[in-house]
């Protein structure tokens, strides 16, 4: 009888309920079994960001290989936008994955290939006025295969203004420095 009561509490709507993930207090949000930490105290090259996540948190750069993880990240970036903007930037972070040149596909750090990733919307270069689409080889060249995620402009749904958020490709370890988004899986 007790086993039946325990089973009744574990089954919710026909699916087995999983206990919520308990993330350390210094983590920012969780999705499924993963805890995420947006590292704002360092601007890093890609390889340094990967090493930071491994050595300091026992994790990896975030693998945003599901719409749910990406949406949670963009939602979190909406919360951080005003703070980052006051400091002269926008929420941006390295994530684990690489653009496959000549395609619009991403290969995530776990090997999964996404043929329809959520790339950043078209962007106009402030200096030249040229409009380019992500992924792009025209801005940094074909070696710009590393992936970052950002919220460049928050949306205002009531006014019909769409957010400019998603992935974009940049050089891995040369001219581009940004924050790390680390993921630890429980």
TrEMBL record:
Signal peptide boundaries: 1-17
Statement: the UniProt record of this protein carries the keyword Phosphoprotein: no
Keywords, in A-Z order: Signal
Chain segments annotated as coiled-coil in the UniProt record: none
Keyword Signal: yes
Entry protein name: C-type lectin domain-containing protein
């Amino acid at each position: 009888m007790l086993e039946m009561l325990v089973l009744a509490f574990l089954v919710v709507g026909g699916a087995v309920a999983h206990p919520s993930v308990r993330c350390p207090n210094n983590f920012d949000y969780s999705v499924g079994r993963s805890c995420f930490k947006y590292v704002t105290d360092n601007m890093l090259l890609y390889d340094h960001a990967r090493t930071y996540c491994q050595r300091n948190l026992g994790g990896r750069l975030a693998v945003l290989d599901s719409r749910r993880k990406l949406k949670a990240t963009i939602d979190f970036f909406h919360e951080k936008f005003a703070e980052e903007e006051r400091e002269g930037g926008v929420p941006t972070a390295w994530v684990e994955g690489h653009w496959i040149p000549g395609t619009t596909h991403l290969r995530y750090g776990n090997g999964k290939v996404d043929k329809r990733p959520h790339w950043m919307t078209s962007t106009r270069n402030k200096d030249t006025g040229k409009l380019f689409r992500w992924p792009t080889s025209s801005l940094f060249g074909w070696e710009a295969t590393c992936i970052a995620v950002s919220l460049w402009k928050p949306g205002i749904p009531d006014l019909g203004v769409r957010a400019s958020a998603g992935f974009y490709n940049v050089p891995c370890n040369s001219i581009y420095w940004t924050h790390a988004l680390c993921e630890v899986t429980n």
